[in-house]
Amino acid sequence: MQYKIPSFGYIFALASIINHFDMLDNHQKNIATFIHLSTFLRFLIPFGNFIGPLVLWIFNKEKSEFVDNHGKQAINFQISVFLYLVVLGGLTIPAFMFGFLQSFNFLDFNALNNFTINFNSLHPMLYFIGGFGVLAIMGFILELIFIVIASLKARDGELYKYPLTINFLK
User: Fold this and answer.
1) CB 35 within 8 A of CB 56
2) In the chain, which ranges are continuous DSSP H helix?
3) Contact 35, 54 (CB under 8 A)
4) Within a 13 Å sphere around the CA of 138, how many CA atoms are in the beta-carbon half?
5) What is the pLDDT confidence band of residue 129, given thresholds at 50, 70 and 90?
6) N or C of the chain: less Cβ packing under 10 Å?
7) At what angle do helices 124-155 and 8-37 cross, to 10 degrees?
8) Sign of CA dihedral 50, 53, 56, 60
């Protein structure tokens, strides 16, 4: 039995095809990475954390299952974070109104002339609000960390699932 040695043209064509798939794969990785990083647009544009990933995902979801998966994850995470923020605000604002504004006499129009805050006699509800504030800051820092981790995973070609995410897009 004889084995036929392929010609150099065949080897170069095969190498070109493999290289083409590597470039396509890098393109998919880059788009998935930019989907996650585009959530930082919220620091420049209102609701940029929704607009950036949504636009990139819509234009590229049919081209790759990898990009589709990362786009859904990024959008689901941003919607989940927004809902958590609404719930936290819904708990904090009434508690603030009850705790801080309880000492105001709204019928006395001169009450603001001698307004002072005595930190020794703060309402206990304000400590509860402070705890929510610390929780919000920790949540913000964790959100930034999760976005960076997701971007690095996408760059490396790995799938990533954000923690504590509600799957709205499946």
Assistant:
1) yes
2) 8-37, 48-60, 65-100, 124-155
3) no
4) 7
5) confident
6) N
7) 170
8) negative
113 residue type, one letter:
N
Which phi-psi region, left, alpha or beta, contains residue 157 (left: φ > 0; alpha: ψ -120 to 50)? Answer: left
Please state the rounded mean pLDDT for residues 8-30: 59
Residue predicted with more confidence, 89 or 24: 89
Q: Global pTM?
A: 0.71
The amino acid occupying position 167 is: N
pLDDT digits (tens, 9 = 90+) for 46-100: 998 999 999 999 999 898 899 999 999 999 999 999 999 898 888 877 776 766 6
The tokens describing 36, both together, are 């996650």
Structure tokens at 161: 């699932």
